[in-house]
Design goal:
Distance between the termini: 80 Å
Order of helices and strands: EEEEHHHHHEHEEHEHEEE
Shape: rod-shaped
Number of helices: 8
Largest sheet: 4 strands, antiparallel
CATH class of the largest domain: Alpha Beta
Strand order of the largest sheet: 6-7-5-8
Structural class: alpha+beta
CATH architecture of the largest domain: 2-Layer Sandwich
Helix content: 40-55%
CATH superfamily of the largest domain: L1 transposable element, RRM domain
Number of domains: 4
Radius of gyration: 52 Å
Length: 307
């Protein structure tokens, strides 16, 4: 381990001046480690530090000049002068190329500034669009909630209702009398006092109308549906209608959204070999078989439960 004579820092590898014998690191010696290695043994032995080179300049060459040496130097100078025109041309070419590069750079800089301005405008528009998208997303969420609340309210308003399909419309018909006849057929006592209202309602994409019966008591409604479903062969002939016999269907009076949901449930259940799909208390029930767990579908997201 040596100490540099200039910076007083210790080092492992450096140089030694042949004149003052001082040790220096490569930085203070103004030479790289690679340059020092390339000097060779003889030249390293004669190497002088920067301070010694200044204080003891190399002695001038006192060897007398000969004619041959002078002529050789003149010849070498003439040879170098012959290269001047080519060098001048090269310099002119370089200047032209630099001028073109400068012009191109200026044009590119102008275009970059233009593109930068356009990019700023686009970024502003994107930011506005992102904010607008956030507003739209919030509005969509609110709309979905409103639609869900409205559908839920409509569904609740129909929980006491029964929908009867398959009974042809007759001029001057008495719907209360039809209900009494159905009640006798299915062995269910349904007095007029238990009915809130009864009316014909148009069917979607059909000229027929089904009967909607609104009960005052939900449990009476559920018992009526259960009794009707127990009589699976209930038909128009059973309630005194002449002509071709039609099957009569008694079901919950579902909202349009719940009817669509029921259609989807039936399709998926059939595809996945579920044996039972029915509606009770306004809720869609699904059962694969007697040994599986009952599934209740209240909204479309619940369809994922049918696996």
């Amino acid at each position: 381990m040596k100490t540099c004579a200039m910076c007083d820092i210790k080092f492992n590898d450096g140089v030694q001046c042949s004149n003052c014998k001082k040790h220096l690191d490569f930085v203070c010696a103004s030479i790289t480690e690679g340059g020092w290695r390339k000097l060779g043994t003889d030249r390293r032995a004669q190497w002088k530090c920067p301070t010694c080179r200044i204080s003891s300049p190399s002695p001038p060459n006192t060897e007398p000049a000969t004619m041959e040496a002078i002529l050789a130097e003149i010849k070498d100078m003439k040879r170098q002068l012959l290269e001047l025109p080519k060098l001048a041309n090269d310099i002119r070419d370089i200047k032209d190329e630099l001028s073109q590069v400068k012009s191109t750079c200026e044009s590119t800089e102008q275009k970059l500034e233009e593109y930068g301005s356009r990019l700023t405008v686009v970024e502003d528009k994107v930011n506005k669009l992102e904010k607008l998208q956030e507003v739209i997303t919030c509005l969509q969420t609110d709309l979905e909630k409103v639609k869900f609340d409205f559908a839920s309210q409509e569904h609740r308003s129909r929980l006491n209702n029964v929908e009867i399909k398959g009974i042809p419309t007759k001029k001057g018909e008495n719907l209360f009398s039809i209900m009494e006849t159905i009640g006798r057929k299915i062995s269910f006592n349904c007095p007029k006092s238990q009915i809130n209202y009864i009316s014909r309602v148009p069917m979607y994409n059909s000229n027929d109308k089904f009967i909607v019966v609104s009960f005052l008591n939900r449990y009476v409604k559920e018992d009526f549906i259960a009794a009707a479903r127990a009589n699976k062969e209930l038909s128009t002939a059973d309630i005194g209608f002449q002509g071709a016999t039609q099957r009569i269907y008694v079901n919950d009076h579902l909202s349009i959204e719940h009817k669509k949901l029921l259609t989807k449930v039936k399709a998926i259940a059939k595809e996945r070999n579920y044996q039972y799909v029915w509606v009770k208390h306004g809720k869609i029930h699904v059962l694969k078989n007697q040994s599986t767990k009952l599934i209740i579908i209240r909204k479309e997201a619940d369809l994922n439960k049918i696996v």
